[in-house]
Design goal:
InterPro entries: Dimeric_a/b-barrel, EthD_dom. The protein is of the alpha+beta class. The chain has helices spanning 2-12, 42-63, 76-80, 107-115, 117-130, and strands at 28-34, 68-73, 98-104, 137-142. The chain has a four-stranded antiparallel β-sheet, with helices on one face. It is globular. The chain starts with a helix and ends in a 6-residue tail after the last strand.
Length: 148
C-alpha cells in the first residue's frame, strides 16, 4: 500500500499542500480552442497573436505568477499532415485555428491578473482584434505530466 501512496504523491502531490483550486495539487491549464476573427488570414492571425497580443499579455502573466503560455497554430497546411497520423478510429480532424494553453498554480492567480486595470484596459479589448469570441471555446483542467 505504501508504494501506491508514494506513486500517488509523486503524480498528485501531498494532499496537505493542495491548492483550493486543484484537488490534486497539480497545476491547472486553461485551454482555449480558438477561432480567428472573420476576415483575417492564417498568416495575419498568427502574426497578430505572436507580435502584438502575446507581448501585451505576457508581462501580466509573469507578474501574476502564471507558469506557461503556449499557442499551437492549426493551419491548413498542418491539417494536411493528419492524413499521415489518423486511422479510422480517430478520423475527426479539428477545424480550430489555434489551441492556446495557459498554465497556473491556482485559479486565483488568473483571476487576479484579469482584475488588473491594464488587463481590463488593454488585453480584453484586444481580443476583438483577432478572436472569434463567439465560436472559441474554453475549458480548464489539471495538468498531469507524463512525458517531458
Amino acid at each position: 500500500m505504501a508504494i501506491w501512496q508514494n506513486i500517488g504523491s509523486y503524480f498528485w502531490g501531498n494532499p496537505s499542500q493542495q491548492s483550493a483550486s486543484s484537488a490534486t495539487g497539480q497545476p491547472l491549464c486553461l485551454t482555449i480552442t480558438a477561432y480567428r476573427k472573420e476576415g483575417l488570414t492564417e498568416d495575419e492571425y498568427r502574426s497578430y497573436l505572436t507580435t502584438k497580443h502575446a507581448p501585451l499579455v505576457r508581462p501580466l502573466m509573469e507578474q501574476y505568477g502564471l507558469l506557461k503560455y503556449t499557442i499551437t497554430f492549426n493551419t491548413n497546411s498542418s491539417r494536411k499532415l493528419m492524413g499521415r497520423l489518423f486511422d479510422p478510429q480517430f478520423a475527426n480532424v479539428s477545424d480550430y485555428d489555434a489551441i492556446i494553453q495557459i498554465v497556473f498554480k491556482d485559479v486565483q492567480d488568473f483571476v487576479n491578473m484579469k482584475a488588473n486595470p491594464d488587463y481590463k484596459k488593454y488585453v480584453i479589448p484586444d481580443h476583438e482584434q483577432f478572436a472569434d469570441t463567439k465560436r472559441s471555446k474554453m475549458t480548464i483542467g489539471q495538468v498531469v505530466p507524463l512525458l517531458g
